[in-house]
Amino acid sequence: MRDKGDDTGGAAQSALTAATHALRRIEAANGEGRFPVPIHVGFALHHGDAAYGNVGSGQRLDFTVIGRDVNFASRIAELNKRLGEPLLMSKPFVEHLWGNPMPLGAHAVEGFEEAIEVYRP
């Protein structure tokens, strides 16, 4: 639960702005023929908790993030392609936005009993 003094709307709005800006730049670069093959990307925006840090030892050390919400975001990313939407947002993410994103319904995904509600800007 957020404290009344927490302003997470600014962070969510900044993430959405960055993602839409990146999509526009990639679309423009594709239109200009800047890549040998057009690039297609998908963004999945979610708000939640994650654990992060270094994993491994010796010769192999990786920095990673783990947790239920990381898995949740990964499942939303899988929906990008299935729904043909380059930018999807979870319900917990849109609850922090100032605008009114368009709901795209709830979708079953692997690893979660309940369907995941997703939105587009």
- The sequence of SSEs as H and E is HEEEHEHEE
Strand segment tally: 6
Give the neighbour order of strands across the main sheet.
1-4-6-5
Portion of residues within helices: 25-40%
Could you walk me through the main structural features you see in this protein, from its secondary elements to its overall organization?
This protein has one domain (9-120). 36% of the residues lie in helices and 26% in strands. The protein has helices at residues 9-31, 68-83, 91-94, and strands spanning 43-45, 51-57, 60-66, 87-90, 102-107, 116-120. It has a four-stranded mixed beta sheet, sandwiched between helices. A two-stranded antiparallel ribbon has the order 2-3. The longest helix has 23 residues, at 9-31. Residues 1-5 have low confidence and may be disordered.
Please outline the helices and strands.
Blueprint lengths: L8 H23 L11 E3 L5 E7 L2 E7 L1 H16 L3 E4 H4 L7 E6 L8 E5 L1
Parallel strand pairs: 1-4
Antiparallel strand pairs: 2-3, 4-6, 5-6
How would you summarize this macromolecular structure in one to three sentences?
With 121 residues, this protein is of the alpha+beta class.
Describe the structure using short key phrases.
alpha+beta; two-stranded antiparallel sheet; 6 strands
